[in-house]
């Protein structure tokens, strides 16, 4: 499992299935960091005037992917 797909949150909803498999439901680090990046872009008045709603999510994902790349050991 890649670092970006690991859970970002310490509290997860664990589900035990009949076959013994356990699935954990939580935001991945990539999802969580992208949300934070998007929140920052939306809150910044400089970006609000030059970015449209379709551009902000893709920029947030680009920022997130670069952050995760920099965090790799």
Can you characterise this structure?
With 73 residues, this protein is mainly alpha-helical. It has a domain at 27-73. 49% of the residues lie in helices and 11% in strands. A two-stranded antiparallel sheet has the order 1-2. Strand 1 (13-16) and strand 2 form a beta hairpin. The chain is elongated, with a radius of gyration of 16 Å. The mean pLDDT is 83.
Task: List the defining traits of the structure above.
73 residues; 3 helices; mainly alpha; two-stranded antiparallel ribbon; 49% helix
Task: Give a short summary of the structure.
The chain is mainly alpha-helical and 73 residues long. Helices cover 49% and strands 11% of the residues.
Question: How does the SSE layout of this entry go?
Answer:
Layout: E1 13-16, E2 22-25, H1 29-43, H2 45-48, H3 55-71
Q: What ranges have pLDDT less than 50 throughout 5 or more consecutive residues?
A: none
User: Which strand order spans the largest sheet, edge to edge or round the barrel?
Assistant: 1-2
Largest sheet properties: 2 strands, antiparallel
Order of helices and strands: EEHHH
Which percent range describes the beta-strand content?
5-15%
Continuous helix count: 3
User: What portion of residues is helical?
Assistant: 40-55%
Shape type: elongated
Rg on CA atoms, Å: 16 Å
Structural class determined from secondary elements: mainly alpha
Number of strands: 2
Termini separation comes to: 14 Å
Report mean pLDDT, rounded to a whole number: 83
